[in-house]
Amino acid sequence: MLKKLSIILLCITFVWQSNAKDNTTSLQDTLTTAQKITVDLASKKDLPDVLYTPPEKPQYWTKGIYNRISFSHVSFTNWAQGGNGSVSMSAYSDASLIYKKKNMEWENHATLAYGFVHAFGDIYKKNDDKLIIDSKWGYTVANKLNMSATYNFRTQFSKGYSYSGDDKTFVSNFLSPGYMTLGIGIDYKPAKTLSINFSPLTGSINIVNNKDLRVKYGNEEDQMIKTGFGSLLNLSYEERYENLKVKTKMSLFSDYLDNPQNIRVVWDLSAEYVINKFFSISLITNFLYDDRIMIANDDGVEAPRIQFKENFGFSFTYTLGQYKKKK
């Protein structure tokens, strides 16, 4: 209706300006037959709608959560060879929050994991427990090269014990230990799946809140926080081969102030075979060496030792939001 009225008004204005003789002459008297027909046709004609889609606002933030629950169960009934039934379960979650605008990118990840194993007739025992926060800021200065700042925090949620027969020994807790690093350097990405980050200026903090555990993790008895300063090299790689996803990350740290020749190593590797959208089979390994951590052997002799953990299981997985894996 508004379109028709607008056309009529435009026609009337044009005709009025071109044919009106004086202010007392009526509009109807000034219209010729052809002009009347034109106005009548214009009032009946519909104009096509003009489709206009406003441009979308740029989205600088992406966020999402990847979740995985793994479980296994073993039971025996009249089994001649003997055995002990058990059930185990572990949960893993990786939440991401990423900001990207022009040459700047800020990537944040929070990794949480907790698991237990219960052998029938025995107590529940923890087999996985970690809380990790990673943050990396980068600004592109050349092709595939960024100036960067990295932050990492690692600890666990609950008490941990080592077991020998029926005896158990308290060995860890929340912030006992806790590790924190903050470094400045460069980030080189020769491929989308590979990242090499070198931070020659890296500060480290070793936190041991429990007094009884401080010496075990490299602090003095009266020293809750021990600081360090050194260089950090992070290597991360992630690739997918059809249904197989492989991801690995290695961190190498040398403390300029405390035996710099002793490199502290943290190496995580995961391989996941995707069965369908929700189910997969996963293998996760963790390798750790830290010369500050004292571990006793079977004879009770304490010394720095290589630590290794392996977890294999059938998993249920799902994602929320725009999850982006760490690079």
Plain-language structure description:
Strands 1-2-3-4-5-8-9-10-11-12-13-16 form a 12-stranded antiparallel β-barrel. Strands 6-7 form a two-stranded antiparallel sheet. Strands 14-15 form a two-stranded antiparallel sheet. The chain is elongated, with a radius of gyration of 34 Å. The protein has 2 domains: 43 residues; 261 residues, Outer membrane phospholipase (ompla), Chain C, CATH 2.40.230. The protein is mainly β. A hairpin with a 2-residue loop joins β2 and β3. About 2% of the residues have low confidence. It contains 3 helices and 16 strands. Helices cover 10% and strands 57% of the residues.
Assign the CATH class of the largest domain: Mainly Beta
What is the structural class?
mainly beta
Given as residue ranges, the uncertain stretches (5+ residues, pLDDT < 50) are 20-24
Number of beta-strand segments? 16
Biggest sheet architecture: 12 strands, antiparallel, barrel
The portion of residues assigned to helices is 10-25%
What percentage of the residues does DSSP assign to strands (E)? over 45%
Individual helix count? 3
Q: Distance between termini?
A: 58 Å
Topology pattern, helix = H, strand = E: HHHEEEEEEEEEEEEEEEE
What's the structural domain tally?
2
Query: Nearest-angstrom radius of gyration?
Result: 34 Å
The averaged pLDDT comes out at: 85
In the CATH hierarchy, the third-tier topology of the largest domain is known as Outer membrane phospholipase (ompla), Chain C
Strand order of the largest sheet: 1-2-3-4-5-8-9-10-11-12-13-16
CATH-level-2 architecture of the largest domain: Beta Barrel
The outline comes out as elongated
